[in-house]
Each structure stands twice: as C-alpha cells, then as structure tokens.
Amino acid sequence: MPGVDDAPVAKDGPVIENHSRFPRRVNAGFMQVVDRRRIRLRVWERGAGETLACGTGACAAVVAGIRRGLLDSPVEVQTRGGRLTIAWEGQGRTAPHPVRLTGPATKVFEGEIEI
User: pTM for this structure?
Assistant: First the structure.
C-alpha cells in the first residue's frame, strides 16, 4: 500500500480545494495510518498550497480516524514540519469534547511590510 509520501497532494489538493461543493474552498488532508496511535499527514491548505504542518488539519484527521475506528487517542501525528500529539476522548459521548494538540512551536519566518 502506498504511503503518504506518494500521495498526489500537488495534483489532487487544488482540485479538492476548488471543487464546486466547497464554494469558499477547503483544505485537503492526506493521511496514512501507521498504527492505532500514529499517523503521517500532508495537508494542502486553501490559498497557500502544501504546508509543512497544519494543527487544524491534524486535529481533524485524528478525530476522523477515531470516529472511523482506525485510531485510539492519543495519536502521534508526523508532518513534514515536525511531530504533534493529538488527544480526543469524545468518541461515543453525547456532549462536545475538546481536542488537545501538543507539540513544539518554531518560528519559520520573520518579516516587515511597509504600508
């Protein structure tokens, strides 16, 4: 089975982002389940292209994986920008339950703009 490294992110990401079902556009995540507590993830972010990491996309991928019975919380998420841990204990509960993301924050850009 091909892994996330072989996912057609640059080809299919823009198609999904601009599909007519999403008039305001959408992010597209490509997830590989490594085991029940680890995934690898690549994200095509609307208006930006493929990103090194996407916290929102990582949280969504983990919740979707748990809801589909593929993952158990907490889940380690490996992105091209680093490793995150996502915890969600909401499966089977009636009330909303928070998603918890932990991981390092790293400055990758600094700049100034004159207006």
Answer: 0.86
